[in-house]
Design goal:
Shape: elongated
Structural class: mainly alpha
Helix content: over 70%
Number of strands: 0
Distance between the termini: 95 Å
């Protein structure tokens, strides 16, 4: 099938094919975003802990590296020190508010 098109007709056909391809690409991108959002919405209970763990890992890595390299601590000791440096302040805050809450309840009752 041999079509002989004029220059103007070739430009119109090229513009139409290009527009059609652009619409297909845009629809594919929108579909990927919509289905990705739905996927993450359904599995958010799985991805949220992973995201929080990734943020903690990125935040605590410099502290771990400093303890291991600059303070010359063995890896396991540096790891334990990082965990304790997070857990001890949290425990102190919980204990402080626990006793503060008990005093408040005793004064009210």
């Amino acid at each position: 099938m041999n079509l002989n098109l004029s220059d103007q007709q070739q430009k119109v056909v090229a513009a139409g094919v290009t527009t059609f391809a652009a619409v297909i690409v845009a629809a594919t991108v929108v579909a990927v975003f919509v289905y990705s959002a739905r996927f993450f919405q359904v599995f958010s209970h799985v991805f949220l802990p992973l995201a929080v763990a990734a943020v903690f890992a990125l935040v605590l890595e410099p502290w771990y590296d400093w303890l291991r390299l600059r303070a010359q601590l063995p890896s396991i000791v540096a790891l334990i020190a990082v965990f304790l440096s997070i857990l001890i302040p949290i425990a102190l805050i919980v204990v402080f508010f626990w006793f503060a809450d008990r005093d408040t309840v005793n004064r009210i009752v």
